[in-house]
Structures are given as C-alpha cells and as structure tokens.
Fold this sequence. Notes:
The structure is a single chain. By secondary structure, the chain is mainly alpha-helical. It has helices at about 5, 15-25, 45-50, and strands at about 85-90, 95-100. It starts with a helix and ends in a 14-residue tail after the last strand.
Amino acid sequence: MSRELREKGTINRRQFVVGTVVTIASTGAWSVLADSHEAPKVSEDDPAAAGLKYVHDATKADAALRQGDHFCNNCQLYSGKQDDEWGPCGIFPGKVVSSKGWCTAWAAKAAS
Ligand code: SF4
C-alpha cells in the first residue's frame, strides 16, 4: 500500500488485524475462546506465528524489530494475568502465548 493511500485514511493489513483483535479483546469476548489452563501453546512454526515473527522468548527476537521492554504480558492483545507463564492472545484464538514472548503485532496497552 502506498504512503499516499495511507495518508488518505486507508489502513494497512496489520493495522486492520490489530484493530479488530483489540476491539474483540476489549469486549471480553476473547476470554471465552481460550482458557490458558487448557488451550494449546501456539507454535513458533505456526504459519500465522511465523508471519508475525512470534517467539516464546522475547529476548531471542530480532533486536532490530523489538523494543527491549515489549513482552506479551504487557501487550494490549494479551489477556492472561501478568504473572502467568502462558495466556491467551487475541491474535491466536484458541491458543496461548508465552507471557515472556513477543511478536510484531505487539501493541501498547490503552491508558486506563
Ligand atoms: Fe499476542 Fe501481543 Fe504477544 Fe504478539 S506480542 S503474540 S500480539 S500478546
């Protein structure tokens, strides 16, 4: 998508996916889709995970892409508890991600 189109108010695919997931997550609807105690862990080899460069250990992510303080457990899309090892993520319905993981869809939590 060209810069010109973005400036005219269109959004790119990543913005659409993240925006949609944030909306779902903020409604609480996501919580019924994955229970962190029963849901399978997302695989780093899962095509969707690989496409977002998801890693279980954020410290192993490409340093050029990730800021040092970005982890799943401080991402807007993570709905697990801060101290849980694994928790649901709106990007991966029905699965859980590592609380110390990261992917390129990381989004800052909305101010409360
Ligand atoms: Fe999900 Fe956010 Fe972790 Fe990416 S960084 S896997 S969007 S919780």
